[in-house]
Design brief:
Number of strands: 4
Oligomer: single chain
Strand content: 5-15%
Distance between the termini: 74 Å
Largest sheet: 4 strands, antiparallel
CATH superfamily of the largest domain: Tyrosine recombinase, N-terminal domain
Strand order of the largest sheet: 1-2-3-4
Shape: rod-shaped
Low-confidence stretches: none
Number of helices: 12
Structural class: alpha+beta
Helix content: 40-55%
CATH topology of the largest domain: DNA polymerase, domain 1
Order of helices and strands: HEEEEHHHHHHHHHHH
Length: about 280
Amino acid sequence: MEDADMSRELHRLTDLAVNEFQPESDATGSKLLADGGGLYLQITQPGGVKSWLFRYTLDRTAKSVGLGPVHTVTLADARNEARRLRKMVLDGRDPKLERMNEKAAHIATRQRTFRVCAEEFIKGLEGVHKSKKAHAQWTSSLERYAYPVIGDVPVAQIDVHMIRKIMTKDDGWAEKTETLSRVRGRIERILGWSTVLGFRKGENPARFSKFLSEVLPSRRSIRPLVHHPALPYQQLPDFMTILRAQPQSISSLALEFLIPTAARTGEVSPALRSAGTPA
């Protein structure tokens, strides 16, 4: 059920009237000028402060909600917002209550720091990780590399510059590429989780492919591929003697087969499986 004024003529006021109206010099309290549809120009007297007010009735209770001062909200803006609120009332929703909820949610989002989100996300992984050590690595790595930069930053405000700072601090990306790569992946998952739950919006700044990869050197260029040193062939007979003296296992049998055949690991494993031996 809407305010009685909502059924009357709309758009009664003009921009000129809004700008030129002056409060009475000896008046006190507030004066309301109706534009129609529940929208009012409110003039606080004797100060003469002008603002917009939307009045409505819901569940037989008269309510009102401010829409802002005229120096910020134009007459056209106020009419558009009043129209949106009238539809809300028509659906049985309370504009004042929803505004309060939005404000509370906004405050809660601002208090949602990366550390808070990370702790909630990591707690959800307790049943996923196979060992306590693997679980603890999430917390320890974030405490060492991420928290000093973004731990106390609202998760909604984290951007690519902050992530890049984590990756490059103290030449970390060059010196500890593998470790920082895992940290980046963990940050990406936490920010993705935060986006799904509505704590942040937009691009995930910790994504590497076609994103951070544009500002960080590739892992291959930082650490060129280095092959393991080969065993001098003169030492091979002694090595084979030592190998055969070890307790027999799938690994030892595979290695003993691989050496004289010069086969690759990817070829040996399927061969053992096809022979019925678990590789």
